[in-house]
Amino acid sequence: MRSELRAGLGFGRLPFLAIGALLVIFLLLPLLVIVPTSWTSGMLLEFPPRGFSLQWYDRMLADPTWTDPLKVSLKISFFAALLATTVGTAAALGMRRLTLGRGGALVRSLFILPMAIPYVSYALGMYNVFLDLPAGLSETIVPLILAQSLITFPLVYIVVSGALSGVDPRLASAASTLGARWPTVVWRIELPLVRPAILAGGLFAFATCFDEAVLAIFLAPIDQVTIAQQLYRSANEAIAPTLSAVSTSITLLAIVVLGLATLIGRRAGTRNGGTA
C-alpha cells in the first residue's frame, strides 16, 4: 500500500512531507526547550541551560509542595479511570446487544458527547451541580473523581467498542445455544477477548485525568491540590527550573502510559483480527 501510494503521488508527496516535518518540529519544540532547562546547574530558568545537573529533580522529589500534589493526582486519576473503565466497558457491552436501527448512531453520539463540550463550560456546570451536595461530600475529591470519569468515559467506550466489533457475534450465539446465560457469555467469552482493550482504555483515561487541570481548578478541595494545579500556581508566582523538572517528569509519565496503552491496543486489535 505504501509503495502504491508513493508511486501515485510521485514528487507531489514532497510538500506533504515538508508540512508534516514542520508540524512535528512545531509540536516538539516546547519539549526541546523544557527538557534541557530542567538539567541546568544554574539557579534561573534559561535556554540554553548552564551546565548539567539533576539538582532540580532532587528538589522536586524532596519538596512536599510537589510530592503531595503528585500523590493527590495519582489517587484521583486512579479512581476516576477505574470508574470510567467500568462504566465505559458496560456501555460498550450493552450497546453491542441493543438493536436501535437508525437511532443507534444518535445514542452512540450521546456517549461521546462529553469529548466535544468545552472543559470550562463543563466545569462550571458540574460545579453548580455539586453545590447541591451535602457539605461533607462536596468538600472532598469525590466531585472531581466523578467529573473526570465522565470526560474520560468516552475514551474507554470507543476503545472497547472497537475491540468488540472484531469479536465474532456467533461465539455468543453458540454459547447461548449450549445453555449459557448472558452474564456467563459476557464474563467467560466477551470480556476475556477484549481484556487488552479494556486495559488500554483505562490507561488512556488515567493519562487524561492525570494531566487535566480545568476541572481540578473548579472542583478540587482547597486542601488537596493536584499536580496540574500546582504547576499553574507556581508558574504565576515565579518561573524556576523546578517547573521544568516537574513538567518533564509529567510528560515522561504521560508518554510511558500512552505508549503502553497504544501497544496494548494494537495487540488487542491484532488478536481480534486473528480471531475474526
TrEMBL record:
Q: Which CDD domains match?
A: TM_PBP2
Occurrences of domain ABC transmembrane type-1 (ranges): 70-264
Q: What is its subcellular localisation?
A: Cell inner membrane; Cell membrane
Signal peptide bounds: none
Q: Chief location of this protein?
A: membrane
Key words, A-Z: Cell inner membrane, Cell membrane, Membrane, Transmembrane, Transmembrane helix, Transport
Question: Where are the bilayer-spanning segments?
Answer: 12-35, 76-94, 106-129, 141-160, 197-222, 242-264
Top-rank taxon, per record: Bacteria
Which one Pfam family would you cite for this protein? BPD_transp_1
Q: How does it sit in the membrane?
A: Multi-pass membrane protein
| Protein family (similarity comment) | Belongs to the binding-protein-dependent transport system permease family.
Name the PANTHER family on file.
INNER MEMBRANE ABC TRANSPORTER PERMEASE PROTEIN YDCV (PTHR43357)
- Protein name as it appears in the record: ABC transporter permease
Recorded source organism is Conexibacter stalactiti
State the organism's lineage. Bacteria, Bacillati, Actinomycetota, Thermoleophilia, Solirubrobacterales
